[in-house]
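in:
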């Protein structure tokens, strides 16, 4: 076996994972979305943590949405905590920073603990606030949105994570803050993939423990205690320990005997106990999350947050503002599938809209192709007939409109997709909007010949129409 073969394979997979999700930049839409939620060859997959956040924030769930999350849960039940070392772009970035620090300062031992407080905290905060909080601020989502849709102030989150590494919190984000790592740690204990140690080949050189960044303590007890298998839930199956072993004593294995599992479970219990003895304990985290949930039930901050969030024009089929903020996964699939590149991804300057889709009618209007609702798994966008869409309503400024000043102009009327229905010509001269039919697509505003458009899309109170749709 070639030296560092597992590390090279893993690096290749990490790079391929990033490149796959960048395919829409080359107009290849067989893979769209991000690690929050994606559609791959027509199959929708959703991160289970994102699913839980949206369900708790919106208090609703659909069967198809559940299935899309269970597919990922099944994968990581089998593979273990491989997401952190094989798929996560933030993990890839942190490893590169660590490698640079090891080169400059010499290799140092990493803290062997996993903090669980962030998992219940973000879930209950999402429940209380009515917004999937971690999905909004997730550095994983920010990485993909930056690469796909452009740089925004939210990229500072990535710089903060790098700064944590530089000041000495090695893998600090992964261990102490990231709820995704905590979630996969909880389910990784059932993975059949283990690190098997051939004790006859092991020479106790401890090169494997020096190479391990996540579970060196339990690996040390495996080789020193005479236990053949390591089943630590902290293990990311990165293969660094296997590559470091000079005798080939360590290998991935699907086999495990009852006695080895018993010993390794005892080791894992010691590691978890050590974790809980310092910092936030899981009991403290659950108590704090419970208080957050009770506070949320007491005054319903989702309404306050929605009211304080800037108003935007949403894709066709978008539910009401409060519900949309709760259900949107910030995955970007609707933006990528848009054939006219109408939709944009909101940056941090738009507050809690961060990561959500919107458009600016004057720049690029909506053609009402109705493809975006088809790729939304959470119900933030619902499939509608084109005539049912109510993004807003067009309003004519008679003081600016050529027609009302005595000139001839039928530009808005001629370009309206519902010509002679949404916009009619009164007396064959004056454009008049039927607010009950107008979809708010923005085409009329886009084509208006005036420097400051004489016809503009205004936001409409959609609460009643939302109730009808639901």
């Amino acid at each position: 076996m070639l030296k560092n073969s597992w590390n090279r394979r893993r690096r290749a997979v990490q790079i391929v994972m990033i490149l796959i999700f960048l395919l829409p930049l080359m107009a290849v839409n067989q893979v769209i979305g991000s690690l929050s939620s994606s559609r791959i060859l027509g199959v929708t997959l959703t991160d289970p943590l994102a699913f839980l956040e949206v369900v708790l924030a919106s208090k609703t769930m659909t069967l198809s949405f559940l299935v899309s999350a269970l597919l990922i849960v099944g994968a990581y039940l089998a593979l273990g905590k491989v997401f952190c070392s094989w798929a996560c772009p933030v993990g890839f970035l942190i490893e590169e920073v660590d490698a640079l620090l090891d080169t400059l300062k010499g290799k140092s031992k990493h803290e062997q603990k996993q903090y669980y407080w962030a998992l219940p905290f973000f879930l209950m905060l999402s429940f209380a606030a009515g917004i999937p909080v971690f999905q909004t601020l997730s550095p994983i989502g920010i990485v993909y949105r930056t690469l796909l849709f452009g740089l925004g102030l939210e990229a500072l989150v990535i710089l903060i994570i790098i700064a944590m590494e530089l000041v000495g919190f090695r893998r600090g984000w992964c261990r102490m803050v990231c709820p995704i790592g905590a979630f996969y740690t909880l389910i990784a204990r059932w993975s059949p993939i283990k690190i098997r140690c051939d004790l006859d080949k092991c020479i106790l050189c401890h090169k494997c423990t020096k190479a391990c960044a996540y579970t060196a303590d339990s690996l040390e007890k495996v080789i020193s205690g005479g236990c053949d298998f390591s089943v630590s839930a902290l293990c990311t199956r990165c293969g660094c320990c296997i590559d470091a072993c000079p005798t080939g004593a360590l290998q991935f294995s699907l086999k495990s005997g009852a006695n080895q599992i018993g010993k390794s479970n005892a080791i894992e219990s010691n590691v978890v106990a050590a974790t809980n003895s310092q910092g936030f304990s899981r009991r403290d985290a659950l108590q704090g999350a419970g208080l957050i949930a009770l506070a949320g039930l007491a005054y319903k901050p989702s309404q306050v947050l929605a009211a304080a969030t800037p108003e935007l024009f949403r894709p066709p089929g978008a539910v009401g503002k409060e519900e949309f903020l709760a259900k949107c996964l910030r995955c970007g699939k609707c933006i990528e599938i848009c054939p006219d590149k109408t939709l944009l991804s909101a940056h941090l300057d738009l507050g809690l809209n961060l990561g959500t889709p919107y458009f600016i009618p004057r720049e690029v209007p909506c053609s009402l192709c109705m493809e975006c609702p088809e790729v939304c798994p959470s119900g933030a966008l619902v499939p509608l007939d084109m005539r049912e869409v109510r993004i807003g309503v067009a309003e004519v400024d008679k003081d600016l409109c050529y027609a009302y000043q005595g000139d001839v102009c039928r530009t808005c009327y001629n370009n309206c997709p519902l010509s002679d229905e949404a916009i009619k010509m009164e007396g064959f001269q004056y454009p008049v909007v039927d607010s009950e039919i107008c979809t708010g697509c923005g085409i009329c505003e886009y084509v208006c010949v005036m420097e400051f458009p004489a016809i503009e899309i205004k936001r409409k109170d959609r609460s009643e129409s939302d109730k009808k749709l639901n």
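note: Residues 388-470 form a domain with the Alpha-Beta Plaits fold (CATH 3.30.70.20).
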